Each structure stands twice: as structure tokens, then as C-alpha cells.
Amino acid sequence: MGTHKKLYLIVPLILLLSFLLIIFEPSFQAAEFYADLTIRVDPSGFVNIEGVTNYPNLTIQNTEQYTSKQQSYWLLNITKTETFSEFVYDLLLPKGSSINYIKTSGTIRIEENLGGLLIKGFGENDSLSILIQYQTEKQDESFLQENMIFILLLTAILLVSLLIIYFYSKEKKTKESAPVTEARAPQMNLKGLNIRQQQILYLLQEKNVPMTQTDIQKELHIPKASVSRNIHGLERKGLIEKEQIGMSNLIRLKKQ
To answer: Residues of CATH 1.10.10.10 domain(s) within the chain?
Structure first.
């Protein structure tokens, strides 16, 4: 009889334990974490994590808690030590990034994506761990910032040089095209001369070398007939003289 009483006590106890396991089994299963995530890292180190997961506070916007920087090297560290029954993620690094070191749980594949890097990860019954050291093209921006004073100084020197060349060329052109005025050679007697004759005399005095009629025409930008007529007038007045050289006549001021 004593043995039968013990059995009567053990059997209900086993049934009660089985019932409790059935009731609380969903709670035990809920402790298994899962994640299907898209992780984006911007050039300033801010991280956005979106997707579906039952892990608390894993999805987050614009956080710096997962990144750090030393000189030109960025470090991304997303580590959750709890076991995930399954996790899948797409991780996008900034454009122009290059990976120096990577260590993750599960399996990964690295692809190029619109100038950036895309890391696809997958794992089962494992912790979620992503550790990446990378660099971006922002180091080129730092170089520009560090040398900005030198660049600005060089630009200023170039602009000043261009302005000097411009004004020098403009002044030279003005001098070449300006008509000869009486003030340039006050010692000459211009009485009875027209403006064309005065210009020819001043040009011969300024060049101080014999010139052909063609040379005079090009320098003064006046018609050929006008040059010929006024040279003939100056020659009659004894102010200039001609010298035949081959097929050309050289014209010079007549020595007084």
C-alpha cells in the first residue's frame, strides 16, 4: 500500500511540472533574440540602425555611441554579447571608405555600393559582433583645411600678378595708340603745320631712326594717301628729307 501511495503522489507532481513547462515555454522562447537590420554610417561618424528586432534599444537614430576616431582612422564597434537565434544585417560605410581591419561574428560579404562599401552579414545562434576600422576621404578635406592659409596667399599673389599685367598692358596700349601732342617735343617749331604733319614729325623724333612711308602709316593708323601728301608737304618745308635705299625711301628729320 505504501508504494501505491508514493506513486499517487509522484504522478500528479510530474503532470503539474509538465503543465507548467507548457505554460511558460513561450516565455523561454522569447528570450531568444533575432535581428534583421540596416546599419548606415555617415562621414561624421553618426550611426543609424533600422529594421526588425526584439533586442531592446538596438534600433537607433543618429548616435555616436558605436563610433570613435583616432587621427584619420574610424572605429565602428557594435557588440551584443547575448545569443541571437538569427541575425542579418546590411552595413553601409560612407562613400570613399577603405577598410583597414574587420572582425565580425557570423559570415560576411563585402561589396561596392554607389561609391561606398556594403557589408552583408549573417549568423545563427551566435552573439552579434561588428568591429571595423576604416578611413574615409575626409583626410583630403583636413589637408585643405591645414593648408588653407597657404592656398589663399598663393591665390592672392596670382590675382595681384594678373592685375599688374593687365594694367601694364593697358597703359602700353594707350601710349602706343595716343596721338603725339605738342607737349612731347616742345623744342620743335610747329607753326603752320596741320595735325597729320605734327604727328609725323613727332613720330620720327621719337623713333630717332629713318622710317619708310609704310612704317609711318602703320604706326599712326592713317590712310596711305594722307601720309604721302603730308610727307611731301613736310619735305617742301624743309623739315624732313628722303634717302633712296633700293626700292624704298627712308624718311628722317632734316638736320638743322
So the answer is: 180-253
**pLDDT tens-digit profile, the chain (256 residues):** 555 555 556 666 666 666 665 655 544 444 689 999 999 999 999 999 999 999 999 999 999 999 999 988 999 999 999 999 999 999 999 998 999 999 999 999 999 888 889 999 999 999 999 999 999 875 445 556 667 787 888 899 999 899 899 888 877 766 665 554 443 444 566 778 898 889 999 999 898 888 998 899 899 988 888 888 998 888 888 888 888 887 778 888 887 6
Per DSSP (E only), the strands in the chain are 33-41, 47-53, 60-63, 67-70, 73-92, 98-104, 107-113, 116-135, 240-245, 248-253
* CATH fit for domain 180-253, picks 3.30.70.240, 3.30.70.100, 1.10.10.10, 3.40.50.2300: 1.10.10.10
The pTM score is 0.46
Residue written as grid cell 534600433: 59
The rounded distance, in Å, linking the Cα atoms of 193 and 206 is 18
- The listed CATH number (2.70.98, 2.40.30, 1.10.600, 2.60.40) that belongs to domain 31-137: 2.60.40
